Predict the structure.
Amino acid sequence: MKVKGSALRSTMSFLREQYPAPTVARILAGLPEEDRKILTPPILTSAWFPADALCRLIHGMEKETPGDPQDLYLRVGMQSCEDGLNTIYKLFFKVGTPSFILKHAGQVWKNYYDEGQIVLVSSTSNTAHVRLEGAKMPDPAMCMRISGWMKRAAELSGGHSVAVDHCACVHRGAPACEWKTDWA
Ligand SMILES: [Zn+2]
């Protein structure tokens, strides 16, 4: 699976904003040489890069982050959603409700990942259930990154008390990854 440079750039911004410079240097030094080349600015936002490089970067941060790693993955995903706001998705969030945004998550997916599609399983005025078909997330950290994106997307489009449940996961033996989001 490949990810768009914009996804890498967002996680690099997160790294530089959240960690002191010596920690950033240590995290980058722990990555393979080819990853460091990819992550050296300027990262071409429209180019495609191996998703594994993004996974290794997230796991590098994890080693320097106390607490539950799931929380880190979630925050990285929330940041990716916020960074998307500065692009073509600005209007999308301004006019959208959480159910509108999550129903159209498939369109956003295609702009960030080169494989698979997000399919809407069901939705109500305060819930959305989606499934990733035709692709396998390379790492459970990426699954939680998606959860973070969905949480922030629902919040930014007006949802309160947003909860995202990664209710089925290929890394836990399910045939596909699924997410259920609800909000008030
Ligand atoms: Zn999963």
